[in-house]
Amino acid sequence: MPADVLTTFATRQIGRGCGIVTVRERPSAANGLVFLSWEDETGTVKVIVWPSVMETYRREVLMASLLGVYGQ
Questions:
Q1: Which of 8, 19, 22, 31 is deepest in the core (most CB within 10 A)?
Q2: What distance separates the 2 farthest-apart alpha carbons in the chain?
Q3: 43-49: strand order across its sheet
């Protein structure tokens, strides 16, 4: 789904999208959470990556320039 559609979703609604990663943040106070922003031609989406997902997809989260995301 494009970013402009995903940003209209309600909290905890399931969605899927992909885009170019523009920001990665791993604040020390976030207890293992990673905050990503990705964008496509319609806008920007902010993503929270939980520690359990980070363990499984560490390389992709930290290295990919294009990322697909599925979740709430």
A1: 19
A2: 32
A3: 43-49, 34-40, 15-25, 66-71
Report which residue type is found at 49: V
Mean pLDDT of 33-55: 94
19 close to 40: Cβ distance less than 8 angstroms = yes
pLDDT of residue 46: 92
How far apart are the C-alpha atoms of 57 and 66, rounded to whole Å? 14
Residue 41: both structure tokens together: 């031609």
Residue 36: which of 9, 68, 6, 5 has the closest Cα?
A: 68
CB atoms within 10 A of CB 46: 11
pTM (2 decimals)? 0.84
CB atoms within 10 A of CB 3: 17
Sequence spans of domains, the chain: 3-8+16-65
